Amino acid sequence: MKNRIFHAPRALLVAGLALGLAVASFAQTTAPGAKGWAAGAFLGEPTGLTVRYGFTDTQSFEAKAAWSFYSQTSLLVQANYLQEFPGIVVIKGQDFPLYVGVGAEVNVGNTFGLGIRIPGGILYRFQKIPLELAFELGLGMQIIPSTSFQGSGGFAVRYRF
Q1: Which CATH class is domain 4-160?
Q2: CB of 57 within 8 A of CB of 35?
Q3: Do 63 and 78 form a contact (C-beta atoms < 8 A)?
Q4: Is 95 strand, coil or helix?
Q5: Looking at residues 117-131, what average pLDDT do you find?
Q6: Spacing of C-alpha 65 from chain mean position
Q7: Minimal CA–CA distance to 124: which of 61, 65, 38?
Q8: pLDDT score, position 65
Q9: Model-level pTM?
Q10: What is the pLDDT of residues 29-64, one digit of tens each?
């Protein structure tokens, strides 16, 4: 008998992309800062959908619903508070804000897991199109059901609206 969790990632990814395209058709370009909503895909370990809400120009909340290639039966939900540090990396007048945060991770699949994480990375927000790119690495510790160290990382592409 096949496990149905393998079909969920494709269906949710297609639904998320369709929703993103619908929102994109009505959205307006936002300012270059972190304020506002952004949604897209996170490619790496784990791979899935990501959404970010910037409540100030340097602080945001980011979440992912993703699937781990490592365990293949796990749906991971990550939620992070992020603090950006603009002006540290500037290349030819373009700002690449560094960020660091703190968050939690819930693993749902054949087993349940709960952990904490510290993500960090670098961002780029296009000036003329409403896209942002991020490269992120995260260190974490699973707390439940047992204690173990974890790592994650990848590349995010988000549409800003």
Answers
A1: mainly beta
A2: yes
A3: yes
A4: strand
A5: 95
A6: 8
A7: 38
A8: 95
A9: 0.78
A10: 444 567 899 999 999 999 999 999 999 999 999 999
